[in-house]
Amino acid sequence: KKDNFDAIFLAIGAWQSRNLGIVGEDLDGVVSGVAFLERVGSGQPVAVGRKVVIIGGGNVAIDAARTTLRLGADRVTVLYRRSRKEMPASPEEIEAAEAEGVDIQLLAAPIRALGDNGAIRQLELIRMELGEPDAGGRRRPVPVEGSETIIETDQLISAIGQFPEIIPPARDGAMRNIPSTRWNTIGGDPRSMYTGHERVFVGGDLFQGPMTVVAALADGRKAAYSLDRSFAVGTVQPEPLHFNISKGTLDAIDREAFEAMKTSTRERMPELDTAQRVRDFTEVELGLSEAQAKREAERCLVCGCAAAFECKLREYMNEFQVDWRVQPSKKIHFQRVAVMDTHPNIALDPNKCVRCERCVTACRLFQ
Fold first, then answer.
1. Quick one: CA torsion of 92, 95, 100, 102, rounded to 10 degrees?
2. Which pairing describes strands 245-246 and 325-326: parallel, antiparallel, or unpaired?
3. Is 21:158 a contact under the CB 8 Å cutoff?
């Protein structure tokens, strides 16, 4: 406000790394996964050990593992305290890392880092087993007594999570009016991204915690709409919800309508040979050939409505802000639909019917 800005959008990300909380974490050679990848991505010189151990099971951990291999590490080990099923990293990233030679040890957690002359030389770890589910629904890892093991390492990369750095009110009095959560994020309305204080909006990892770029972009779009409306009409208004209708989840829909369609497997993306790709940062995925792309496109079931963006009925639903809904579970049998759908100009699908009677009117006027 002092610099004559009318609004503020807070989107500083989640750059702070969580500490391991073990003895020896301050030794030379122990680094944060986010800081490590940031230096690599910005082209700064990066020191890489010969025997690298990475703690964590997310995409940052897997990215760090594959990166250290490409920078010359002889052995790369990932330790994750839960099972493969609980690993939050993308399955394809995990598979690629293993194909390239990364050793992923599950149900293992660090206890302490052992050093020599101020630098890490060994890591003591303990085996885990899964106990009862925690508050988030994942089974809690429990140490297995007597399973301690020591492994050699000269670099330890911590990738167990990130969080936003929020300035406390003691350092900045303006933060007293900005809502914060117990997850160390800024609170706000998820549709308008408005914090509730003056014209301060929030989005991205600072609002949601560590998420994806796509999620952050969506927050920015919603905030931009709300900001624009705030300047235009003087009040914060979220973007209107667009009416959608669904037949339900994949498990709930009637499969009979698709039985006549040919089943085919997804095309496999061609990739560089594993021995070749670990030499540098050349793109691993080579792209689909034209023939593969055509075969993949032919797998589409075209299950959406082609008129979704030109449908007058949908426009009215949006205008009057009709709630989204799922079609009733009772469906008209597919074979009955096929029998009734005989008009040369009007397609009949009772499963999509909303009783608007436009087809009845059309028949009366034009037949």
1. 120
2. parallel
3. no
Q: How confident is the model over 125-162, as pLDDT tens digits?
A: 999 999 988 877 878 999 999 999 999 999 999 999 99
Strand-pair category, 108-116 with 119-133: antiparallel
Q: pLDDT digits over 266-321, tens only?
A: 999 999 999 999 999 999 999 999 999 999 998 887 766 667 677 887 788 778 77
Under DSSP, the state recorded for 285 is B
H-state helical runs in the chain: 33-41, 59-70, 91-99, 205-208, 213-233, 274-277, 290-298, 312-319, 334-340, 358-366
Rounded to whole angstroms, what are the CA distances from 153 to 29, 73, 196? Answer: 9, 11, 49
All structural domains of the chain, each given as residue ranges with its CATH number in brackets, are: 8-13+164-233 (3.50.50.60), 19-160 (3.50.50.60), 240-261+301-367 (no CATH), 263-299 (no CATH)
The per-residue pLDDT of the chain, averaged, comes to: 87
